[in-house]
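chain and backbone:
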Amino acid sequence: MHFLEPVTLSGRLVTLEPLSSDHCAALEDAVRDGELWKLWYTSVPRPEDMAAEIERRLALMEAGSMLPFATRRVSDGRIIGMTTYMNVDAANRRVEIGSTWNATSAQGTGTNPESKLLLLRHAFETLDCIAVEFRTHWMNRQSRAAIERLGAKQDGVLRSHQLMPDGSLRDTVVYSLIASEWHMVRNGLDQRLRRR
């Protein structure tokens, strides 16, 4: 048994479902909403690459290093994106939440903060994680701002950390939340979501 096992996480705005190949067509539609793959500082799959991306994530799940989810909006049942637990370090009870994207029309609606609340609650309260990481491209200011609004602290910047598909080098900003901060972060997220 792996540290992470498939689980469905349900909230008021979204349900995070274990990713499967059955989600492919709906995810192709979701990624077309805003043509997210055109953002040079992200690694969002093109519609024609979605099946391969799902297979890649499922293979990493089988290896025990990732637990991928499809994000379903509760109000209309529509699949709006993907998110994952990744870079799993079971021995040290650490995970990263990442490889997240949401359709443009879903951005700013509360679905992303609730997704993070569900993932963080499961990580800290069920998996007993010591820390949860977030990583993003230095140039992805929208993602950095969202991570900081969660209450995560910046640990540092890994310069020239990854080669991007266009050949540029990514500076990766690393953030984390630790278990002792979870109560405060949970209260802040609950308060934000109550206002929606």
